[in-house]
Amino acid sequence: MPYFDAASSLPPHPVARQALLAAFDDGWADPSRLHREGRRARMLLDAARETAAEAVGCRPDELTFTSSGTRALHTGMAGALAGRARAGRHLLVSAVEHSAVLHAAEAHRAAGGTVAEIGVDRGGLVAPADVAAALAAGPAAALVCVQSANHEVGTRQPVADIAEIGRAAGVPLLVDAAQSLPWGPVAGAWSLLAASAHKWGGPGGVGLLAVRKGVRFAPASPVDERESGRAPGFENIPAVVAAAASLRAFRAEAGAEAARLAALVDRIRERVPRLVPDVEVVGEAAHRLPHVVTFSCLHVDGEALLHALDRAGFAVSSGSSCTSSTLTPSHVLRAMGVLSEGNVRVSLPPGTTEEDVERFLAVLPEAVAGVRAQLTPPTVTGGAGRAGGAAEPAGTGTFTVDSLGKRCPVPVIELAGAIGRVAVGGVVTVLADDAAARLDIPAWCTMRGQEYLGESPHGDGPGTAYRVRRLV
């Protein structure tokens, strides 16, 4: 079964397996002890730190091993904010950061700090000028957080330019490099960096946190003497050794593999819109990771599509709101202002073949068509006021669709069925209480060439009224 979810996690790299087993024999002792076994464990830990630091592009004494990438982010953010508390308590984060960063930002706000989000364009790109404007707008910022590449759509961020803006303003930049670090070091004068070993085939439960010398940093209490006080507790040396060894091994093949996978991703980006009607490929076309492509399918339930592809033999993921685990759209897709329904993220692991991609492209149209066929045909009700009155004849000036209590993609499907009930220039109002409608109705208008007039509270009851003018 082709595994196309590499951005979530990779299977253990063969080098990771070998290093882990070898380190179990020699790396079990306390590396802080002076006896022979302790010295042997210390040598393994130091060698792993040097290997990882070389891959990151920092000094070994700037790098800490943590229990996960999430822990690295939380520790890095908390330590940097605490270390710069006298400079200010304002935190800037991009709107498309990983949820681990956004959760830490919420914790900072709950503790009395302030947080501002920096928006992105429809490709998911953070503009350095927007970072500069946010820093100038005040209040005094303590930290800026911008990922090196997005985990849902693959867009690479201009980290070097943003880091330079932060340096000029005297504000450190923390970079979540979980997605990009396997493919190469992060350029620029960043101040803090976090990553996660399972993204490159290392063991789960190992993260990296790099803090440049000179960055004000105050580890959260309680602290101990291990890992510079930034990761208390006994080091998992076998896992750390495996993480460092697999990172080096992945990097050795990254250049050639990136070029090969990028060509396969280009093929998917180009052919999916031709094979499947009403599809929007999202994310930057040029400034992106080599192995990630994301697209959204109009009038498709995302969870059902993932199951259909799984039955066809393909493991993919989704940033769509249409899953059983959440009732809100992906915050990344929402920030980009793109379609969220029927969202599929394909992230190719090293070794993916052309045959795998061709077979995926062969089964995708049938999978999408099957999911669309399962959806209930749109039911619309008429009247210029509240939905539920007698249907008006085609060509009238107004029409109201009651989609209250219905989840995506039903409100958009019902809008599509209703738009023909009004004359050109007429207005369809959709009543919906699904948060995804706020994103998907404007996106549908863009794809269909209709005019989105905006939203307003539903005066007669719950939900929101979305108004669309028919142009074609």
TrEMBL record:
UPF0033 domain location: 401-425
Keyword Transferase recorded: yes
Keyword set includes Transferase: yes
Signal peptide: none
Keyword annotations from UniProtKB, A to Z: Aminotransferase, Transferase
InterPro entries for the chain: Aminotrans_V_dom (IPR000192), PyrdxlP-dep_Trfase (IPR015424), PyrdxlP-dep_Trfase_major (IPR015421), PyrdxlP-dep_Trfase_small (IPR015422), TusA-like (IPR001455), TusA-like_sf (IPR036868)
Catalytic activity: (sulfur carrier)-H + L-cysteine = (sulfur carrier)-SH + L-alanine
Cofactor: pyridoxal 5'-phosphate
Pfam families: Aminotran_5, TusA
PROSITE patterns noted in UniProt: UPF0033
Entry's Gene Ontology molecular function annotations: transaminase activity
Homology family: Belongs to the class-V pyridoxal-phosphate-dependent aminotransferase family. NifS/IscS subfamily.
PANTHER family, per the entry: CYSTEINE DESULFURASE, CYSTEINE DESULFURYLASE FAMILY MEMBER
Record's protein name: Aminotransferase class V-fold PLP-dependent enzyme
Annotated organism of origin: Streptomyces johnsoniae
Upper classification of the organism: Bacteria, Bacillati, Actinomycetota, Actinomycetes, Kitasatosporales
